[in-house]
Amino acid sequence: MTALVLIIKQATPTSSIRAALLSANDVDKEQVIKMTIANNKIEAVQSTIPAKTGIIRLEPVNIGGIYPDSNEDRMVVSLDQVPQPLIDALIATEDRGFYEHKGVSIRGIARAVLNNFSGGSMQGGSTITQQLIKNFYLNSDRTLKRKANEALMAVLLELHYSKDEILQTYLNEIYLGQNGNRSINGFGLAAQFYFDQPLNELRLDQQALLVGMAKGPSVYNPRRHPNDSKARRNVVLSNMLAMGSISQEDYDKALEKPLGVVDKPVEGKSQFPDFLDIVKRELNDVYYSDDLKNEGLTIISTLDPIAQLAADKAVETKLGELRRNSSKTKDLQGALVSANPETGELVSVVGSGSEFTGFNRAVDAKRQVGSLLKPIIYMTALESGRYNLASSVDDSPITVNLGDGTKWNPKNYDGRDHGYVPFSTALSQSYNHSAVRLGMEFGVDTFAKQLRRLGVEEKIPTYPSVLLGSVNLSPMDMLGVYQVFATGGFRTPIHSIRTVIDDRGRILQRTGLNTQRSIPPETNFLTNYALQQVVSNGTAKRAQSLGSNLNLAGKTGTTNDYRDAWFAGYSGNYVSVVWVGRDDNKPIGLSGGTGALPVWIDYMKRLKLTPVSMPEPEGIEWLWLENNSGKLSNERCNSARYLPVMSAHLPEEASSCALSLYQQDQAREQMEWQDEQGLMNQQRQREGLDIPNSEVINPDEAGTEGSDNQRRSDTWYDRALEWF
Q1: Stretch 96-124: mean pLDDT, rounded?
Q2: What pTM was estimated for this model as a whole?
């Protein structure tokens, strides 16, 4: 057996992220962590520092940035986060008199003029303060007027700000490269971009390389011009040696080091643009745009990289297969959103194609949702107490008179009517006639109120076809609805941000659980059971391939002419919604079960799922019911099903089969009692004892004792209920 050993160096938590996540008295010391992995499992974890808690904390993975209009990207660092050798290298190379001059260095200008005449190029004439002014306010024109303005503004800047403030701003502002159409600004981001390491963990030679690039990031780009970059690095090291910042030994060692630049940039283009788009939208609801561009905020998101990569792969794989099916599906698009149902934390999003264009289908694609809304109709019926999971519903053709004098005749997708069918079957098979009948019984207004109760903020139209999902909602909208079903009726708004940290490490925002009860626990328990039937023996039966022990729940959705295919469902730890369709809204010839469900299954199978295990509320009892009537039954009856029922709405009638069995059992018990009494009387006779007379109830007297009669009736019902 071969094992993979990972060595992780955990630095002292000096970054703003670490400082914000850990309190001042809760700091991990720098340590080396050794992790042994074999057979896809962690076999051992070792550390150079003992940990009483057994917990190792690592810095969050940097997944990208939200950029200002100028496409400048930076990772803001404070001065105490910058290694001293880098500051020494910068001073020695760019402005040796930085701490002595008042913004302009006469000596530096004279030295630059002399070097230009002699052919040298060790330093430029501009001070660090002048360079900062040029980057912020001026252009790069080589004119006497610009240089004069630059010098004057540099003096004014020195009058208003300290040297440390100017240096820190310079370290975060300096341009150090380009990644596509985004510039790399500041040493903090440059360290990640070129070396895939935090700034304070770079070697001396790597720090010198970055300082050397300040003179010309294009000319000294280590990926394109490694020789020039190395030569410039060595010049910086030589300057440090000349200034006494490093020893001869350190200088010699640094010269021998290779560039050590990673082959591909790890910063710049985000791996997860759809998720970051949602983060940005959420931020825009709370912060001003200028603050987001200029304040150097650090956002701790809810993204789960494992779930996100699973989502990307599932959509890519299954959409690729579906696109090859026919001409209708060659331009197929899709969206997937997934969250932790208990916390409402968004863990993965797929909402665009290979290149993000700004149109995020996860939130921007408002499409008809079809049968995804049917569970709300059945939930309303259960909550009313008029129906239970075994009740009979009519799936015969229905005609609805509309307000404009026209008529609406909905059709089932299989083109057939099914007559009277069991309640849970009507939902699991997604019959339209029965859904419309139930929906109209309680009213479209009630349906709209239920949607708002579940967190849908879109305006719901009042025409009857809305009962079959003719309302435009996004995958994110539907994720919010099914999150409620998945948590026992509690609604927690879906969110993508955990914490917002400013450039000084202060926590500006921490997202707490804003949970409220949306559905009564008994109602949600029954609705969840019905949604589990969709997966166990209904239109989503294919999801059983993930494991029948997971007790998965969900609902397929298909719109008119097969234009949209949906599936929304959940395990114990993930609630996920998939939409598949075309941007031009043309038919795709796929249903929710053949279009969206395969994507959902592929995504969920890549994750470690936990079973749906919803706590049973106090107001629930399990009874044998006659399927397709909802009456009390007995397990010996062929049509009996053992189902949860609300205690407040127990059936008051029994099925003919159950009544017959009950009467037979009662008669048998009576005969057994009489036989037992006969044997007892015979025994008393043999022993010479008197035989007591039986108590006789006068039927005429029974009618005059209403309370006693009612009590006997209640007792009979209670005992009968236990029997059934």
Answers
A1: 61
A2: 0.78
